[in-house]
Write a structure and sequence with these properties.
Helices cover about 15% and strands about 5% of the residues. β1 and β2 form a beta hairpin. The protein is built from 3 helices and 2 strands. It has a domain of about 55 residues. About 15% of the residues are buried. A two-stranded antiparallel ribbon has the order 1-2. By secondary structure, the protein is mostly helical. It is elongated, with a radius of gyration of 23 Å.
Amino acid sequence: MLRPRLRATPVVLALLMCAASACDPYSRDRGSRGGGDDDDGAGSDSDDDDGGGPSWVDSDGDGLSDDQEENLGTDPEDVDTDGDGWEDEEEVDLSTDPLDGDDHPYSMGWPIDPCRDELSVTGNQVGQVTAEFELLSQTGELVRLHDFCGRAVLMVTAAFW
């Protein structure tokens, strides 16, 4: 009876992909563990040059390593540094500022584009970038135009006279 050899293929493929991308099963920050330049020859997961824990440790469990939080200026002991109800990692992933309680993802789930802070107003004609403005959404939340800088925006308005 012939045994199928495909059973080991996904595991081997996963290991090859992991090796090719320097993945780290303990952190979202791929490549931050192992192979460090420590004097003892051990990987960076065994000790850390600054005397702290391994670089992949996530003390508050929000999905950002303590090293990432230090680089961002967020609190590695608090899942929601700015207290706006959104975890730090969610805000980073959704292009909002985890240090600003007024800057958070939209409750309706609309994506915010990271290019919003790089726009320069050029005018009000087709193909130009108009000045930033805010409108209320159907939930009463303020929505800023430049948050959708990477998308076509169709505005529908109505008035009762």
